[in-house]
Specification:
By secondary structure, the protein is mainly alpha-helical. Helix content is about 45%, strand content about 5%. Among the domains are: about 35 residues; about 40 residues, no CATH class.
């Protein structure tokens, strides 16, 4: 074993020290201080750049005013102004429609046609059924054949048994998209 080295015992008074050639402490600290200085300089430069752009933007906003738009901030459009308060207009429209659907009024006073509330109309339609569209009989005017029979007085209506009516099926064939949900 020619390559086998034996270590000599350390001298009694000797102290153990590190290698000075491996790490350069002075260069590491110098690099860290330089990096910090560069970061501070970059932050100051960016801050000054933002100040410059901010002042330039304020100056541009105050100077740039279109000559035709100057002094016309509160000018209204010409008449007729169609909707000055759209929310109130919508509320008024809905109130008017609710009044038509839920109130009584004349449609044609001379012909005796009145408007009744929608709930009452649906109830009467269920009670009386829908008028049939049969062809007029010979000797009968066309208007008489299509007119529904007059309603019986309320006392007779209560005494009459009500037939159990089912809604009529739709006459249209279903389209390919009906019933399919995505």
């Amino acid at each position: 074993m020619a390559n086998h080295h034996t270590q000599a015992p350390a001298a009694v008074g000797e102290t153990t020290q590190h290698e000075e050639s491996d790490v350069n402490i002075r260069a590491i600290f110098g690099f860290g201080i330089g990096l910090f200085v560069v970061a501070v300089v970059v932050h100051v430069a960016i801050y000054l750049l933002f100040l410059y752009f901010s002042n330039g933007q304020q100056a541009a906003n105050s100077v740039r005013q279109y000559p035709l738009a100057a002094g016309q901030e509160n000018r209204l459009p010409p008449e007729p102004r169609l909707q000055t308060n759209p929310r109130q207009d919508l509320q008024d429209l809905r109130a008017q429609e609710d009044q038509l659907l839920n109130g009584y009024s004349w449609v044609d006073r001379n012909a005796g046609v009145v408007r009744i509330p929608i709930a009452e109309a649906m109830r009467l339609t269920i009670q009386r059924g829908l008028p049939s569209g049969s062809a007029p009989q010979p000797g009968q005017p066309a208007a008489a054949a299509s007119a529904p029979a007059p309603a019986p007085p309320p006392a007779q209506r209560a005494a009459q048994p009500q037939p159990n009516r089912q809604p009529a099926p739709s006459r249209r064939p279903p389209t390919p998209t009906q019933g399919k949900r995505r």
